[in-house]
Specification:
OB fold (Dihydrolipoamide Acetyltransferase, E2P); 3 helices; signal; DUF5666 domain-containing protein
Length: about 100
């Protein structure tokens, strides 16, 4: 019986470590130029590719009030489906916008 309990406990630790690594791998940051803006998002052109950024958590439906085409930004967030969900957005003049969850 001890053997089974040890295996279950060990397996639980492995799963926890694996989930933590996966969550950290999904969170990332991209810098680039805004190509297009709409009410709850924008398209970001980086050196390597273009990303569709969902900025609803940061601006709600007011993205175009805060960002414009041509703005240089750095976006922190994670991929969810085909979009990159923004947690924070920093403009080139160091103005930072972020979700309530990222304020410390």
């Amino acid at each position: 019986m001890r053997f089974v309990v040890t295996v279950v406990a060990f397996t639980g630790l492995l799963v926890t470590a694996s989930l933590t690594s996966t969550a950290q791998a999904r969170s990332s940051s991209f810098s680039g130029t805004i190509e297009k803006v709409w009410e709850d998002g924008f398209r970001l052109k980086t050196e390597e590719h273009s990303l569709k950024v969902d900025s609803w958590d940061v601006f709600g439906d007011n993205t175009s009030v805060n960002l414009s085409e041509g703005d240089q930004v750095t976006v922190d967030g994670e991929f969810d489906g085909g979009e990159f969900d923004a947690f924070s957005i920093i403009k080139e003049d160091n103005v930072k916008f972020c979700t309530q969850d990222t304020i410390q």
